[in-house]
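Quality-control log, excerpt.
Job 1 of 2 completed; input and output follow.
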Amino acid sequence: MDKKRISIIGIGATGAVLAAALLKQNPDVMCIDTKPGLDEALAQDGINISGAISIQTQVKNFSPSIKDLKKYSPDLIFISTKTYHLNIILKEIEEIYVPGIKIISTHNGFGTEDVIAEKFGPESAFRMSLNMGASIKDSNNIEVAFFNKPNYLGALNIQNNETGLIIADMFTKSGVDTEYVDDIKHYVWRKMITKSSLAAICAVTDMTIKDVMEYPPTREIALGCFNEAIAVAAASGYDLGSDFLDNALAYLDKVGSHKDSMCYDVENKLPTEIDFLGQKVVDYGVHKGIPTPYTAVMTNLVKTMEKKYLY
């Protein structure tokens, strides 16, 4: 893997953690981000990760432009941005893409790996499902609040298994334990059902996850969304087990005293990730003939809120 040329696009909270892990194994990793002033901070102090994961590393290669990857000629491109940037980024990657490049989505949401596969072919697409929570203390200092090991990584083409195992091993050696799995979509469903069920409710009500789950009216909506998503997952071939909901609710009752990131998107009048969360559950439900009224209503409410400040 030390012969591979690696780039990561998006050095936000999650992207910085992944970049630091990659840089620890390969100091030549190219970091891409458009945030003003980030280049100076990275050049001076590198990336500093603290909390549940601890990594300090320097950054040798940085650019605000994806176009500069043409000169860098990467073999692997990690994308760690908000999902609403994905199509724009893939369009820019298209200008520098050559066959053989592998593109790894580390996003929240459903189906981001499929968007990559539609543009560049399934042989190019990987997906990570991350089980950690990180926040930006300042531009290049990141705190990891929790890491429920491991993260999961998978490819859409079985011929990429060897590469996937090497990538997973590289992260694990840097302290960001990652397991390569045969069916990454199973793990995406397990994580994203919770995210998709609660994000819109939190965003519309401006409540913490804990408050949503403790207040009977919003808990009822959350349970409706959960049951719809579980049914859609099952119809899509992903049986998550009879105890999935009970385990998810028990987990939320312990660690839910924070707002979902979609709350901050709405508060700051930014696009949300609803198209890859609730909207995907609705779309998959239509395709499989599974009704999703709770999820559809919450999704449409978020889109209506977005419309008020984006258009």
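Job 2 of 2 completed; input and output follow.
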Amino acid sequence: MKILVAGATGRVGGAAVRHLLEAGHEVRALVRSAGKAGSLRSLGAEVAVGDVTKSETLAPALDGCAGVFSALSAGTGREAEEVEHRGNVNLLQAAREAGVRRFVYNSALLVDHPLAQRVGTFREKARFEAALLGANGISATVLRPVMFMETLLLASSGPVAFVPGRQRHRVAWISASDVARAAVAAFEKDITGPHELAGQDTATFDEAYRRFSTVRGKRITVLHPPLSVMRLAGRFSSPIEELASMFALFDAAGYASESPALRETFGVEALTIEEWAGRVSRSRTSG
């Protein structure tokens, strides 16, 4: 089948492009700028230039597609309202008008938690989940992954990682690649409904960094700046404000799931932190 991937330049969307192509499907990648599409074309994907916030640009991208995988993301609450909610609603409406019958959406764990209302990206994901699962004429799948292992890269700067708050709860971990593989399985097996996706590893941030640094062969020191300091800085920076609210949720509620759906429903055997870290190290060395 031909699948349109929105958010194809992101970590989950990019991995989905690769896995869909490897599985023998045709992929059309939706990008806002043709200049960002070189790597996608080199993989074998067709590229369509469009913007989910401009509904009039979406019909050509959806022509001939059997399904949509949305892995759109945003960095602030304002962006989330524009992209994660309105943009996805536009994409869903355009898909229905184009006769597309499958829509798989990459959401997040705990978007329905009371504290998630303070996190713009989570709040808007929850709003779109409700719209998608309540839509008529389309088979919908919502993926709710736990903490991405790639977060370990984003939170580290050289030998130091900054993790706001105490973060004493154990967290469940998953790689972006395994979420992408679950998306492929959702299309191929016609798996619908909401599903929490968790890998086999559960560890605190400090433990996860120790395991990551062991494979990498370089020690990482984890520092925990107080959330109050993050909130103060967030008064002057929307991305920092969003990050502070997100880590406040993790600090209070943790971020773990015992759902076996990844393996039992989607048939995906998850990478461990060590296996993922080994792949990251090898890719950096070869690059």
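Post-run check on job 2. The mean pLDDT is 94.
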